[in-house]
Design a protein that fits this description.
mainly beta, Immunoglobulin-like, 16-stranded parallel beta barrel, 5-stranded mixed β-sheet, 47 strands, about 40% strand, globular
Length: about 600
């Protein structure tokens, strides 16, 4: 082999290596000189109206955004930044993260929202949301929303076996306070027939009888005042004192009628339970009389309240409820109603609420056992206190903790049978004027709600057996023949239905308007005029062991997901949910429309 050939091969190899190195250097220089792709954060959020046209952007998933790294564009024109004006604020310190909100002041009329990331090399639109009809007012009722009901409405039943009265073997709690049961003072009505063990110390003449009753209560503080049988005619308030029991012979035997002394005078004449450790038991209240609780540690047993007077006429209600728990400047704790009834009332049977002074008040540890609300409300044209009267209105503007409703019945009330508002403290313009109310530990067991809303000829909004929202459990509860839904969940979360059933209401269950984590377990919906389940704008709904029987259906399905009367604000899909439904084969239309995202379906017919 010639030496020149060997040299040529070496030189060729060296040149090839040099070319590879040069090529790699050129590529590396280009790559290193070019910036890496910019990481753009992902954020999921919803938009709701706040107060006075303000907007709230609720962070619902994805990455945190530090204040100053983003801006918000409203209607494509008005821009909100962390500095300048208009300016956004964040409810948590320093960053917008899941569960917190961005507040955009004075955004009335907003129809579109665009979130813009500004921390990178350029601005990037992360997400846009539009609402042609305006964003959802959270979580109050929309006064412009139409009620989707069939004609004719359901009949009031009975669908049985649902009793008109409730009996219970649940014993009442002990009377509150330290009461000397041997210190007894009697009050005799003008027509009493019972002869007590010792002569009554107070004798009424049938006029202004509250005077003798209040005199007895003042002397008997720490003991018992017994109202004998007959009719007590009062024109003023009755005011028991602490550590005292006011006890009659039973509803219909001891009757207390309360009316103003002059026709047209103020009818705000309660049995005022305004001191702690007060107990009342065993009488009827008529006309303008009602029970008003404004203190803790109270027991109310065997009291029947009605707007009917002794003359058979209905008198306008003055209290928010025939049994009215009112947190006025202080919290209220430990109240029980046992065996009480509200019948033919111009106002709510029960109402729990607070006086709004800018400070949230709490009502806690309340029990209602074997109580009954029947025919509460007739509509404003017929003289009701308002157009929204319900049987049991348990949650309005107050924070509510640990309420048990056991073996109670709501029959033929104007709007809902049992009612808990979804949490807005809203002003006259519909905007929120305070934080959302707290709802913790609400339980219903063995309750019945029947025929509510069927007499509501003006077709308002609720008209349901049970209207509820958050942190509520219903166990073995029954609904029947209600004009709207048997069970209606609005802006709800963390609520369970166990062994519940609806028979003959327009809808069995209606769940809507940003509800989540609702469980329906081993429940039945039967003879519904439209759907067994109507669910939209919700997620994490778990329906297991659900049975339907003879559901009429509507829009081609026995139950429906996603549709909401073609109202853009509320017609949003159902996601991340599961449905296990068994239907009666007599109904030939499909069981459920299988739409949304992240949902699972197990649909079958009875064997």
């Amino acid at each position: 082999m010639r030496t020149s050939d060997a040299v040529s091969e070496v030189i060729a190899g060296v040149l090839l290596i040099a070319l590879v190195v040069i090529g790699f250097t050129i590529v590396a220089s280009y790559v290193m000189s070019s910036p890496l792709p910019e990481k753009v954060p992902k954020v999921q959020f919803s938009v709701r109206n706040g107060s006075s046209g303000d907007l709230l952007l609720i962070h619902e998933g994805g990455e945190e955004l530090a204040a100053g790294t983003f801006s918000v564009l409203i209607n494509g024109l008005e821009r909100f930044d962390a500095v300048g004006s208009p300016k956004y604020t964040i409810s948590s310190a320093g960053s917008w993260k899941i569960g917190t909100y961005v507040h955009l002041p004075n955004s009335a009329g907003a129809r579109s929202v665009t979130l813009i990331y500004t921390a990178g090399s350029g601005e990037t639109a992360l997400r846009s949301m539009t609402a042609p009809n305006g964003f959802y007012v959270f979580p109050s009722r929309d006064p412009n929303e139409t009620v989707d009901l069939p004609s004719p409405l359901p009949t009031a039943g009975p669908y049985g076996p649902f009793p008109d009265t409730v009996t219970t073997d649940i014993a009442p709690s002990a009377y509150c306070g330290e009461i000397d049961m041997n210190r007894v003072y009697y009050v005799k009505a003008s027509d009493s027939t019972i002869v007590p063990e010792k002569p009554p110390l107070f004798v009424c003449d049938g006029s202004n009888d509250e005077q003798e009753i209040n005199d007895a209560l003042a002397i008997a503080q720490g003991g018992v005042v017994v109202l004998l049988d007959g009719h007590f005619r009062c024109t003023g308030r009755i005011t028991p004192h602490s550590n005292t029991l006011l006890k009659g012979q039973g509803p219909g035997i001891t009757i207390v009628e309360v009316k103003p002394s002059t026709p047209g005078g103020s009818g705000y004449l309660p049995v005022a339970l305004r001191e702690e450790n007060v107990n009342i038991d065993g009488f009827s209240l008529m006309a303008n009389g009602f029970v008003m609780v404004t203190a803790s540690n109270v027991r109310v047993r065997n009291v029947t309240a009605t707007s009917l007077g002794l003359d058979g006429q209905l008198y306008p209600a003055s209290g928010n409820g025939m049994f009215f728990v009112w947190a006025d400047g202080r919290d209220i704790d430990n109240v029980e109603f046992w065996g009480c009834k509200a019948e033919k009332c111009h106002t709510h049977g029960w109402n729990m609420n607070q006086k709004w002074d800018g400070v949230p008040r709490a009502i806690s540890n309340v029990r209602l056992v074997a109580c009954n609300a029947t025919e509460c409300g007739y509509g404003e044209p017929a003289g009701s206190r308002s157009e929204w009267i319900t049987g049991f209105d348990l949650h309005e503007w107050q924070d509510l903790y640990y309420v048990k409703v056991l073996n109670c019945t709501a029959l033929k009330n104007w709007e809902s049978g049992f009612h808990l508002e979804p949490g807005a403290r809203y002003g006259s313009d519909g905007g929120n004027i305070g934080p959302r109310t707290v709802s913790v530990g609400i339980e219903f067991q063995n309750c019945t709600s029947q025929g509510n809303g069927v007499s509501n000829y003006t077709s308002h909004f609720f008209m349901s057996g049970y209207y509820l929202s958050r942190n509520t459990t219903l166990d073995n509860c029954t609904s029947s023949g209600n004009a709207n839904a048997g069970f209606y969940v609005h802006a709800g979360e963390n609520s369970d239905f166990i062994n519940c059933r609806d028979v003959g209401s327009t809808y069995g269950w209606k769940i809507c308007k940003d509800s989540r984590n609702i469980n329906i377990n081993n429940c039945l919906s039967k003879n519904n005029l439209r759907w067994a389940l109507w669910i939209s704008f919700s997620k994490e709904i778990a329906v297991t062991g659900f049975r339907t029987d003879n559901v009429a259906g509507y829009r081609g399905y026995q139950s429906i997901l996603g549709w909401y009367k073609d109202e853009a604000k509320y017609q949003r899909p159902v996601t991340e949910s599961s449905f296990a439904i068994t239907a009666n084969p007599r109904t030939v239309i499909p069981i459920l429309n299988q739409v949304g995202s992240g949902n699972t379906f197990s649909l079958s017919y009875y064997v």
